[in-house]
Specification:
Blueprint lengths: L11 H8 L35 E6 L15 H10 L4 E3 L6 E3 L13 E5 L14 H12 L8 H4 L3 E8 L2 E6 L6 H4 L8 H4 L4 H7 L8 E7 L3 E6 L13 E6 L3 H7 L9 E2 L7 H6 L3 E15 L9 H9 L3 H8 L4 E3 L22 H10 L6 E7 L2 H16 L3 E7 L1 H9 L6 E6 L8 H8 L5 H6 L5 H15 L3 H18 L2 E13 L4 E2 L15 E2 L1
Parallel strand pairs: 1-9, 1-10, 13-14, 13-15
Antiparallel strand pairs: 2-3, 4-6, 5-6, 7-8, 8-9, 10-16, 11-15, 11-16, 12-16, 17-18
Amino acid sequence: MRDVTDLPAPHRRSFLKYTGALGAAAALSASLAACSSGPQSTNDTGGGKGGEDAALTAVIGYGNDGSWDPTQTASAFSMAANQHIYEGLLDTDPISREPYAALATEVPSDLTGTSWKFTLRSGATFHDGEPVTADDVVFVFDRILDPNTQTLAKGFFESWLEKARRIDASTVELVLKFPFPDGLSRLTLAKIMPRHVFSRPGAWDDAIKGKAVGSGPYRQTAHHPKSNTTFEAFAGYNGPRPPAFKRMNWLTIVDAAPRVAKISGASAGAQIADNIPYANIEQLKKGGMSVQGGAGMNNLFLMFNTRHKPFDDVRVRQALHYAIDTGKMVEVALRGHGKPSSSFLNEGNPAHRAAKTVYAYDPEKAKKLLTAAGVSGLRIDILAVNVSWIVDCLPTIKASWDAIGVETTLSPQETTAVFTKMDQKQDYQVVAAASNPNQFGLDADLIMHYNYGPRNLWMQYARWAGDPVARQLFKDMDRATREPDADRKRAMIQDYVDVVAEQAVLYPVVHNELMTAWDPGNLSGVRAQPYPGINLLQAKWA
């Protein structure tokens, strides 16, 4: 995942370093000395039957060495963990994404105005025993809205939120620039952090490296980058979703084979794992595991360097999309767990409708578009991330492009290597990678601004922001954000999504399911989510 904020160029390197690319963590060379005494074995004893004193062991298919700062991170591991460690004023259900009162006592009922007032939950304390106050809330929102501090969270709030204001020790007011009902669900992205901890010199660097102190149902007990992170139930938690597990150990196992092995067989060392390869679904089911998928915005996208000819020509970009046999890709690479894209938004999104330009498989149309653009003898090197399911999809792209006379080379690399090249402004032609904005929410305004904006990092990578079509698109997007009428706003979003589809600068090829597996003999209440990670706030021992 990349930045939803309109990130200015000087901050690109620090953002890439700390957030984790595409939901997978970027590498950090330093570990957090205060949280780790060195690597811990992943041979945890938490497998087998659960019980009151048992440790739940989970396997996460993403790195735990990305940023843990809730205002900064796009790391799949740390975002999932932070849902258990921190609270927002409101949080959202992991599946429906409906807001519920977390640190606040209730969800505002009147969304027509520009002021939301929240009373904090009586007795709420941070994991170090200090009380949660309105000053902590203001501290976090001040950081997010600070014009001199660039955070990922800024892009979720700065367009509509004016400020947070302390009324008294347990009451805070959010002042909006204009009525914005969609902002309610975004409040879960502003995790409330203790001012007395994170206002200290160097504390934000500590947060990036793994220091986590919240008010949620679980507190972090150890953090070993590239190995595991451990948690225990917070005895002082008095909120709406109390902890069901006394201890948890989350292992990071990025490689598919050992991840699947960890939850397989009679001697399984874990009870739940995410990011299950499609090829292992039946094997796990036969072994008694529940394996379920979540369909959402997870997608393989192509991004073109519009300053590298001939990719500045929209006809060339369109041709290469029309040429891809997406039906074969879904059947062979995704084993039926996906759909060809009919819009930038997935079909399950409330704002979805088929775009006016749908890239159905049409190699003859692709050839005609290339001819009309005056392009022949095209050679393309696809710079791709080496995420396993993306690698499975690449041969279909190569075969499809080769078939229309485009000589294609595949260059899958580590995710961080791919985006470091773009961060350094190295030349490239086409990038194939994965993205899933659903980990931030469902509203289309958020999703589209995640990828498109005048100073957006993605648009800097695509080198398209200065194009006249892009400049008009960004204006149309901002007007839609401010539109008060819900039906009119949806229509405006759908209209500019048509432009995004037609231009095909950064555009999904397929949307696919993410699979989660767990032992139903051990766990109940698990729900597979359509974005990376797991949420165990409503799970319990079976």
